[in-house]
# Entry
Amino acid sequence: MMTQNPSPETFIAAIKASGLSIYDEIPIGHPTLWIPTTQLEQLLQEGLQGIALEGLPLRTRSKVVKESVCRVLGYPIPKSFKKTQPRFPGQFFDIYTQKSNNLQIWNEELSPSRRYVIIRVSDVDEITRVKVVTGDMLAILDTTGTLTQKYQARCIVGEQQAELISDTDTAQLAPFVKPGIDLAKIGSPVTQPQVGGLLPVAEIFERLVPLLGEQFPDAGADQERNRGAALHSLVCKALGYATYQDDGQFPDVRHQLLEVKLQTSPTIDLGLVTPESRELLDVPMLDGVQVRHCDVRYAIFYAQIEGGNVTLTHLFVSPGADFFKRFPQFQGKVLNAKLQIPLPARFFAQTEGLPD
# Structure
């Protein structure tokens, strides 16, 4: 039986009642204590906005921000803050207070699944905006070359226009899927996945195949995000959702644990996490079982661009665990370095995904 997603305030009450500190680790996806990224951003945005930091020395400012985060999330404020990595181990996130758009991460690699709480401070030292992203999403913004290589794979189209790489989900996810679901009645694309609300991978494939041959206007080579949004909208409609939504979190259609990629060239960018990874995913547990990256389903659309239009020509659908059975992986690794990531001007104003 499906349950409604808890409100952000529910997590605060549970944390207060638990007596846990920010240093007590919580299993990713714990139904009452782990705050999913979207709710975490909402809570911190509402709770931190307007806090004045004017005139405070850097160390004091840092302490005030961390104390405020504890207060907003329902944690007791420690007598002193430990130098842990990340700074808030319990919810697995780091904090960066930014007046400029140059995000600096010292002496660490970006961690793919770690959350990065980026707090915008105005010219008069007042908190105005909070954005929470994972390391994998931050890697997309790195245009400096400091991350040298991210994971990539190659997509070579064959004679078949539509390929289902595996017709079964992973053994861990399979017990929670259900065929024939009317998605318009039970959720939106960005709702958290729920037991009994997940389509089997084979049915996802069947619902998406009719999109082959569909066209939409090309926004231009420098507008990849707009192309992706156009495709995501078609995918949501084909799956049966009443509305299109995209909050920029992984995977794109979170309610179906479905990542959607548009390819106009053979190189598939995978970021800092491979599809076959067994790292835990930041979604609530399904009946006590935590979803992993390898349980996520992938829909890869290949397209041609002609006459100002994007035409979908090929479709590949696969569970993450079987992804590399069809798409050979390039070899590469992320190097440890001081990272300086220029945040786009609209980063904090963006409400749906990462800005251009």
